Amino acid sequence: MAESALPFPTRAFDEETARAELYGLLAALLAAPPADELLARLRVAVTEAPARGGFLEAPWQALVAQARAQSAEQVRDEYEALFGGVGKPEVVLYASHYLSGFLNDKPLAALRGELAALGLARAEGVSEPEDHLAFLCEVMRFLIAGDDAEVCNLARQHAFFAAHLHPWVPALCDALQAHPAARFYAALAELLRAFVQVEAQAFEMA
User: Residues 152-188: pLDDT tens digits?
Assistant: First the structure.
């Protein structure tokens, strides 16, 4: 996580960078157990927004507090307990599960068609289906921070978010926060829930 990967921009023109970096941080924390360096940087992250009481401030502070309270090994063990193991994990991170009730179902096929239209594809050697939340967050980061204005623009962001994140991420957050093994990832779920709400409201206003 770069030092700039914070939900609180210091200047107005940093807002898009902050959005992209927060999507990137979410992707990194959901894709795999976080590396020691990532957790170390999270522990020393700034926790106060420029304007006190911002909507993301409290959940961000709670996540940083959990990072400080737990060892890297504890966070890795929690990740494996929630998302790993043999067979169906305790908490599922795939959109199709929430949108249709089945893994690798029609929502995944629709997503793959949209990714092809955007010129995106799963990297070679990656076995996870594209509807994993970490991958979807990476796509949003690309649509915000990418250089190709034909693809990376507000309209594309809104359409992708509305189709592939907003309909199901709150249900995932519910599942994470209800799980007795979740501490660090319960805090991450609250930040994710708040961020999705902020994104939805911002797209409606735009």
Answer: 999 999 999 999 999 999 999 999 999 999 999 999 9
Q: Which fold has domain 31-44+55-199?
A: TorD-like (1.10.3480)
Which residue, 4, 5, 79, 66, is CA-closest to 35?
79
pLDDT tens digit sequence for 17-37: 899 999 999 999 999 999 999
Among all chains, which residue has been given the structure tokens 């623009």?
Answer: 153
* pTM for the full predicted model: 0.90
Q: Residue 181: which H helix or E strand, with range?
A: none
- Residue recorded with tokens 């991420």: 169
Q: Which residues contact 82 (CB under 8 A, 6 or more apart)?
A: 89, 90, 91, 176, 179, 181, 182, 185
In contact, 23 and 140? CB cutoff 8 Å: yes
Residue ranges of domains in the chain: 31-44+55-199
